[in-house]
């Protein structure tokens, strides 16, 4: 072990990397656990072997490369590259899928009480009130509850508000467990006029035999990696080969695939038996008398049916066309089948939900929250909160809101109502697509950008009425069209700081270094 001081480590790293590495850079690595802090009596030392190991690691090389491309002001801490998926989807944050949400640690970074080389002041303290006018699935609300900060969230989508409300609600554990078991038991006793279970058992046995013969584990994948097998051609050939087996079993068990109607999302994207199971379970849920319990059961069912849509595993997030036959799965590298029952998924998500609610219940602090369905450009926050919670309303009117942390929609990237079309069909909520700011269907042209900038500015101008003096406003944005300076001006605000964050886990094929900005606004 070769122990050196921070200045000595800086000098060594500068020579090793052949570029300037300041003592602050080394301190940054120590502060965030990239290298281990050693030494006694207040003297910080690092092990050069540990430092070298970091610079040779994948993330170490990537950090250097990205900073060379995007600038030394890139805040690598905000990449959260050291976290596992289970950390970024902790407790209730994973109760329901949602496109376009940020990870809870990003919220925590800005609303907790730490400082570093980039975040040099504390913006929020325990007992403050924080606002998210683009609440989505409620990440800011949940993190605020975990960190002892009151919160208000607003979203134009009624289903989004339901997701956030279900995550934030406090439940009677014993009562909820009984309700969940009753819901699951209702599906166990559901009788259909076909033999789905026997059909699936025989189909799975045939698939196992076929896949073991032609797509056997690592051997097949190794052949693909070596280029000795043309995957597309081989997959098409084997799909056709298995199809008669599948069709024979459908006929043997008289399995009906399509529903009689095709008028709605639920009609088109679900097998006939799956749809009947959905309707049966939903009728059971509707009989639940406790409103909070009824909503969380409906959310479990919504999460379930999202995973049971008639599509391939690789197309689950971006539906292409209904998949009603067996198919070669490019994700699992074998022949897979569509789902004919929701039973397995419903059980899995039900108990997962119970466990996540329990975990969050141990962490949450006794602070207030409010989730509001409304247009943030016009909603009266004081009135809405007073109707929901008079006690919180008193605190809100006395203190006012300390600031905003949110991620506004990006221009022309997501249709927020359409991503949950199945839930709107199931729950009967009224869609308000026309009130979305910057939806995908409006594109990214000049008119769409102009409308977007005005929409975000209108939200900020409305929210200003409820903010205390000198609030801190943080907006997470992919501002490739440089709209946020204009938005700040239209909202009577100014940009006082920008935190550049590397985005590591992108879904696009483009893997070039890419960042987004967390804009820090102040009212003029």
Notes on the structure:
It is a single chain. The chain is α/β, with parallel strands linked by helices. The chain folds into 3 domains: 3-79, no CATH class; 85-161 and 364-523, Vaccinia Virus protein VP39 (Rossmann fold), CATH 3.40.50; 174-353, no CATH class. The protein is built from 21 helices and 11 strands. Strands 7-4-3-8-9-11-10 form a 7-stranded mixed beta sheet, sandwiched between helices. The chain has a two-stranded antiparallel ribbon with strand order 1-2. A two-stranded antiparallel ribbon has the order 5-6. A hairpin with a 4-residue loop joins β5 and β6 (334-336). The protein is globular.
Q: Biggest β-sheet, characterized?
A: 7 strands, mixed
Level of helix content? Answer: 40-55%
Report the CATH superfamily of the largest domain.
Vaccinia Virus protein VP39
Shape by Cα distribution: globular
Under the CATH scheme, which architecture of the largest domain would be assigned?
A: 3-Layer(aba) Sandwich
Task: Kindly summarize this structure in a few lines.
By secondary structure, this protein is an alpha/beta fold.
List the helices and strands and how they pair.
Elements: E1 3-5, H1 6-17, H2 23-31, E2 45-47, H3 48-56, H4 58-70, H5 85-88, H6 104-111, E3 129-132, H7 139-147, E4 150-155, H8 158-168, H9 173-188, H10 196-214, H11 217-226, H12 231-253, H13 265-268, H14 272-286, H15 291-307, E5 327-329, E6 334-336, H16 343-363, E7 369-373, H17 381-388, H18 390-399, E8 401-406, H19 421-427, H20 446-463, E9 467-477, H21 484-490, E10 493-502, E11 515-523
Parallel strand pairs: 3-4, 3-8, 4-7, 8-9
Antiparallel strand pairs: 1-2, 5-6, 9-11, 10-11
Helix pairs in contact: 1-2, 6-7, 8-15, 9-14, 9-16, 10-12, 14-15, 15-16, 15-19, 17-18, 20-21
């Amino acid at each position: 072990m070769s122990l050196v001081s921070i200045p000595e480590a800086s000098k060594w790293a500068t020579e090793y990397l052949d570029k300037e590495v300041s003592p602050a850079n080394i301190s940054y690595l120590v502060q965030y656990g990239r290298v281990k802090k050693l030494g006694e009596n207040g003297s910080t030392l690092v092990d050069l072997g540990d430092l070298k190991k970091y610079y040779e690691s994948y993330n170490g090389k990537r950090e250097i490369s990205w900073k060379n491309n995007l600038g030394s002001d890139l805040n690598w801490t905000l990449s959260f590259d050291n976290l596992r998926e289970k950390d970024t989807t902790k407790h209730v944050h994973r109760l329901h899928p949602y496109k376009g949400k940020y990870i809870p640690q990003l919220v925590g970074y800005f609303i907790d009480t730490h400082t570093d080389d980039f975040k040099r002041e504390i913006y929020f303290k325990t007992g403050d009130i924080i606002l998210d006018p683009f609440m989505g699935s409620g990440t800011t609300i949940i993190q605020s509850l975990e960190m002892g900060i009151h919160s208000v969230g607003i979203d134009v989508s009624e289903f989004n508000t339901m997701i956030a409300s279900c995550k934030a609600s406090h439940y009677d554990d014993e009562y909820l467990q009984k309700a969940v078991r009753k819901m699951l038991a209702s599906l166990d006793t559901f009788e259909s006029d076909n033999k789905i279970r026997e059909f699936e058992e025989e189909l799975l046995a045939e698939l196992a035999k076929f896949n073991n013969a032609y797509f056997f584990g690592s051997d097949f994948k190794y052949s693909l990696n070596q280029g000795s097998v043309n995957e597309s051609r081989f997959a098409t050939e084997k799909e056709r080969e298995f199809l008669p087996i599948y069709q024979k079993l459908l006929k043997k068990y008289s399995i009906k695939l399509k529903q009689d109607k095709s008028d709605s999302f639920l009609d088109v994207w679900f097998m006939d038996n799956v749809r009947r199971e959905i309707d049966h379970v939903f009728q059971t849920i509707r009989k639940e008398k406790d409103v909070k319990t009824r909503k969380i059961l409906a959310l479990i069912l919504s999460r379930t049916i999202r995973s049971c849509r008639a599509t391939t595993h690789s197309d689950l997030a971006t539906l292409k066309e209904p998949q009603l036959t067996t198919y070669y799965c490019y994700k699992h590298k074998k022949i897979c089948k569509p789902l004919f029952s929701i039973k397995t998924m419903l059980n899995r998500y039900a108990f997962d939900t119970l466990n996540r609610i329990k975990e969050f219940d141990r962490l949450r602090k006794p602070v207030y929250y409010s989730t509001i369905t409304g247009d943030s450009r016009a909603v009266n926050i004081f009135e809405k909160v007073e109707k929901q919670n008079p006690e919180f309303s008193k605190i809100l009117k006395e203190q006012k809101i300390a600031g905003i942390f949110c991620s506004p929609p990006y221009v022309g990237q997501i249709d927020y109502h359409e991503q949950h079309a199945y839930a709107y069909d199931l729950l009967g909520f009224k869609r308000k697509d026309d009130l979305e700011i910057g939806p995908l269907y409006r594109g990214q042209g000049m008119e769409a950008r102009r409308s977007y900038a005005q929409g975000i500015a209108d939200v900020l101008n409305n929210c200003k009425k409820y903010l205390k003096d000198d609030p801190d406003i943080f907006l997470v944005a992919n501002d490739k069209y440089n709209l946020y300076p204009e938005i700040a001006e239209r909202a009577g605000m100014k940009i006082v700081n920008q935190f550049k964050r590397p985005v590591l886990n992108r879904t696009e094929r483009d893997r070039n270094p890419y960042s987004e900005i967390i804009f820090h606004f102040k009212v003029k």
